[in-house]
Amino acid sequence: MAMVVGGWFLWPKVSNSSVELDKKATPASAGDDIRESVEARPKGGVGHLEATMMARGVAPGKSQPTPGTWATKKTLVKGNGASLVAVKVGTAEEDAWTVELPGDICAASPYVTVDGRTVVAYKSGKNGDSCNRLVMFNLDTGKKLWDVAIPWQAAPFDEPTSISMTRGVVVATWWQGTAGVDMRSGKILWERGRTKQCNDAQVQGGKALVVSYICALSTDYKDIRYQVQNLDPRSGRIVWTYHAAQHVYVSIVSSEPAVVAVEAGEDAVTDLLSLDDRGKLRATIRMDGDHYQVSCDIERGDGCAGAIVAGDQVFVASGAVSEDLGNDTNWLVGFDLSTGKTGVKFDAGPNQQLHPIRMSGDRILAAKEGTDEVAPNSLVELDPATGRERTYFSFTLPSGFSSGAAANAAMVEDGRIYFGKSAVMGSGKKSLPDAQWMAVGIGRAD
Q1: How far apart are CA 323 and CA 371, in angstroms?
Q2: Distance (Å, rounded) from C-alpha 114 to C-alpha 257?
Q3: Mean pLDDT score of the chain, rounded to an integer?
Q4: Are 301 and 164 in contact (CB under 8 A)?
Q5: What are phi and psi of 183, to 5 degrees?
Q6: CB neighbours (10 Å) of residue 27?
Q7: Is 93 helix (H, G, I), strand (E, B) or coil?
Q8: Residue 19: which H helix or E strand, with range?
């Protein structure tokens, strides 16, 4: 599919070897599906620490990147500088395994396959700045399944590499292009290069593969135009294209059903747009200024904080509302993706805020944050069909964690809620630096 810009026809470059590599690549299996765990029903009660992970030896005043947080029934896994580290779940901090990489981790997929694999990128090259190596590994064992180079090129400014995954395919994008990699073999299936004016801005995996494609039509930074493109994961071919209005910024909330966030004339999300399976606009959902709080970051790779798609609805978190005593509360509101009309509303309640995490079947998992020193934190299940809320367990967090600020990076797996930091800052004495919290896992105390 072509795009017309200023009279010139521009195509994203697709590698000539795509078809041949695709024939050699191992077909996707059920284990290559993206994990969509369904949690057992809530029982209530109190939670306790079941996994802890610390970074040790970080020099005072130095920031150490700790990208990626993943968990299985057995392990809690994180990136820590140039290492992948895992601790056993259900122990104080017993090491499960450690894998040292040749360079610092510079990107991490938020997704995990059904059989417990994920991908990170690390830096290599003479100067150590090239974010050009992908590694797929097993979360339970740490075993590296493949380690391949992508045709990464440096940007004239700080432009991060990001990684996403969909069934059978890993997709990495950077300033100069995008590549699809076979999940089993590590072979590059296809490549898309940038043109003089256009490049891929964001890639979103999960159930499908959708990219945002941005074109700068002049030197005026406001003179931009976005496309949203659905790609065939195995070939990189464009299945459909949605052409966004000029002068708006676009981020992808969900790949299937396709939902995008738009910033029009403001430095905040102003609208959500739902698209059909041919890329046609279904409904426009207004965010009413700062009434709703949706935050998009292209490095996330798994949507936008504050918005979660549940079937044919998108649930959006409201902005915090101050109560009489100065403690904040909020709510989640469902919008129909066909009509844009509001539906079920979940109120956080006095002195509490709701932060959606992910779907569990047809229900929403959310962290409920206490905003005073009395109301607890809790993991809750929200049922869009009935409007009912049920609590898994209440919990407290170690100093340095917040169920509010950290909830956007929270995850739930096998009945536990995990919080992980993307970076830690060293403190203490140079000769004896303090240990820093990297991640915690909390489960129900039976």
Answers
A1: 11
A2: 21
A3: 88
A4: yes
A5: -70, -30
A6: 9
A7: coil
A8: helix 18-24
Contact 273, 281 (CB under 8 A): yes
Residue 195 confidence (pLDDT): 84
The single-letter code of the amino acid at 126 is: K
Which residues, in sequence order, are bridge partners of residue 243? Answer: 227
| Residue tagged 């409201």 (tokens) | 318
Count of beta carbons in the 10 Å neighbourhood of residue 386: 9
138-165 confidence digits (pLDDT tens):
999 999 999 999 988 776 666 678 999 9
Please give the span between the terminal C-alpha atoms of the chain, in angstroms, as a whole number. Answer: 56
Structure tokens at 411: 């995850």
Number of C-beta neighbours around residue 1 at 10 A: 11
Task: Let me know: does 400 contact 55? Beta carbons within 8 Å.
Answer: no
List Cβ neighbours of 284 (8 Å cut-off, separation of 6 or more): 271, 272, 273, 340
Are the C-beta atoms of residues 76 and 439 closer than 8 Å to each other? Answer: yes
Q: CA dihedral in degrees (241, 212, 332, 68; nearest 10)?
A: 140
What is the per-residue pLDDT for 439?
94
Q: Cα 358 to chain center, whole Å?
A: 11
Cα–Cα distance for residue pair 55/62, rounded to 1 Å: 12
Cα-trace Rg, the chain: 22
Q: Residue 120 has which token pair?
A: 């990170």
Cα 345 from Cα 381, distance rounded (Å):
14
Longest CA–CA separation in the chain, Å? 67
**Cα–Cα distance for residue pair 88/170, rounded to 1 Å:** 27
d(CA 348, CA 156): 45
Range 3-7+9-444: architecture per CATH = 7 Propeller (2.130)
Q: Other CB atoms closer than 10 Å to residue 151's CB: what's the count?
A: 15
Q: Where are the beta strands (DSSP E) in 265-341?
A: 271-275, 281-286, 295-296, 304-305, 307-310, 313-317, 321-322, 328-329, 331-336
pTM confidence score:
0.90
